[in-house]
Every structure is written in structure tokens, then in C-alpha cells.
């Protein structure tokens, strides 16, 4: 084969390989499967065998990829946390400089679909009992940050009692998300979370006038 023909063939092969979707590695399959099962069935309801079988692998491959189920749970929650803050920061950026609009947008933009099973962090907190569980620290840090951010928004709005308002907003968001475990998106109390948030903001901000 001539040099330019060989080069052309190499380029074609490279282009074809780029167009072909890469098969997920074993670790990725295990992780993606575990995330789905943990969210739908609960952390305690899913064992290593079930995760390995569903991922099309075995326990040996599982423990090559993750040191323990507890560590996998912690990673599952860290991944959920990253998604949450990407969503939060996107909402914030759309209303930069207007804390009230940012706050209202958080409730207006709260995602909801038929597959929602509440907040992964809150669900994990209910199931985890061991104080030294690596996932519990992930939950505590995440919820503490949400509380701090809502309080910061309340301070920016110059509320009469910003810490009370911030905590109230956090409770409202947490409650509306968890209510989706029981009620459908289009008919449960979560549909009124935005209106409730506006009423709460009005009540606290009027005291500043």
C-alpha cells in the first residue's frame, strides 16, 4: 500500500473509532447500576450481589472497583451532590444580582417527573444509622451548605430575621421534594411550593419596610 493510501486508511479508521460509542468500563457499569438501584429501591434494599448481577459482572469485579458498598454509597451521593449544585448554580446565574428572583426561581425550577423518589440525600439519612458511615458525612456537608446558602440569600434580601427565613426556605424545599414520594408531580403539594415560597418571602420582607 502506498504511503498516502495508508495514511488515508489510518485517518478513516481513526474517524470510525471516534464515531463508535465507547463501551462503559466495568467500574462505570457497576456505578451507574448502583446509582439507579439505590435511588429506586433504597440503600439497604440493594446488596452487592444484586448490583453485580444487574451490571452484568460479579462480586470479584465489584470489589476490584470499590473497596466496599459503603464507599460506593458515598460516591453515589457525591455524584448526586454534583448534579444538584450544577442545577442550583445554573438557576442562580440566570438571576444574578437579584436574590429574591433567585430564591423564587429555585422553587419554580425544581425538577419533577414520574420517576422521582425524593431527595437522595434525605433518603440516605433515613437509612444510614452508623455515625462513622462515609456517606453520612456527605449528607451532613450537603445539607449544611444548602442551609448556609438559603440564609445567605435571606441576608442579601435584608430580611428582618434572615436565619429564620433561610431555614424556612430550606424546610419548604426539602418538604416539597420529599412529598413527591407520595403525591404525583401534577397534583401534590409540591405544585404550590413556589406560591408558598413567595408568601414566606413577603411575610419576612414586609417587616423591613
TrEMBL record:
One annotated GO molecular function: DNA binding
Gene3D superfamilies, sorted: Tetracycline Repressor, domain 2
Residue ranges for the DNA-binding region feature of this UniProt entry: 47-66
InterPro entries listed in its UniProt record: Homeodomain-like_sf, HTH_TetR, Tet_transcr_reg_TetR-rel_C_sf
The species this protein was found in: Hydrocarboniphaga effusa AP103
Residue spans of biased composition, Low complexity class: 1-15
Residue intervals of the HTH tetR-type domain: 24-84
Region ranges (Disordered): 1-22
Name of the protein: HTH tetR-type domain-containing protein
Pfam families: TetR_N (PF00440)
Alphabetic keyword roster: DNA-binding, Transcription, Transcription regulation
